[in-house]
What we know:
CATH architecture of the largest domain: 2-Layer Sandwich
Bound molecules: (R)-mevalonate
Radius of gyration: 20 Å
Largest sheet: 9 strands, mixed
Amino acid sequence: MLIKVPLKATLFGEHAVVYGKPAIAFTLPLHILVEAMDVHEQKIVVEFNNVLLPIRKIEFNREDNLFSKTEVDNDVAKRFVSYIATAIGLCEDEVKPGRRRGFIMYLKSPVPTGVGLGTSAAVSVATTTLCLSTYLSTTEIEKSLIAKLSWRTEQIVQGVASPMDTYTITFGGIRYIDPATPKAEPLPTPTKMNLIVGYTPKKSTTAVLVSNVKKLLKSSISASKIVDAIGSIVEEARSSILQGDAERIGILMNLNHGLLDSLGVVSLEHHTIVNTLRGAGALGAKTSGAGGGGAFIALARDEEHANILKRVAEALGATIVATGIESTGVEVVEKGEM
Ligand code: MEV
């Protein structure tokens, strides 16, 4: 079985979404591929390509919850596999309580883990899809179940997680996420959005950044108003996207970036990149995701301008991973289709 999962970037509303505000995110034409088979032995074997983690293979015994035959004792790798083990456990409890199978997975990622493009959510979504496809027929699998179980996986492994990443990656396209329901409303836009997406090395984990923001918000009533302001930007951005008003979307991206900066999550490199991209004519540019470095996005005027912005960001040391939006979420594909 081969599962193809898009990565994602956040257009508006990161951090505030943790406090119940809506957010807007979109999937990228950049995918994690998981080739997998189920086995009777209760073990999970995950092989990685060398981009994802500094190790190649990790094995986890489901009977005694122990890692074995680990090439390197690596905490990041173990945490990574805990997303996989948790997702499989939740899926089995939901669809076949008491059943336990093993899985051998080969996982290929185009970007390193933890750069702010939703790699952990993509792995949770891929694993949940794999497990559901093992126990149920395609017609029985609803995307809402994939999204729900993957979100729960992130909450268990990370402690705090909004449904933004997992719901966007499951359904695909540009999505307005309401964390209260949760729902992932598609936002069809009448004009092409010339977005470029890149990243710089991330200096802090999402968990640390979310916890720093929490401390800041507790420190003053005024700080907590930033979350309300971000929520209001998201609502205005939703109607701007539906109307295809690129100028206004850009202005709102810049406003959102300023508020992320006041929350303390914008790195020095992102200051330089975002300001330079604006100087080069970007309609808007912002940090995307948890911050502390990591992902950023910019809105260009057209395709040609997007290529210019790409070269400007690369000259500043950033890696550009995508231009444009992917409209499809997680998919189980036949190998011949790849
Ligand atoms: C992480 O991609 C985005 C945050 O808003 C955290 C979350 O939504 O769980 C910072």
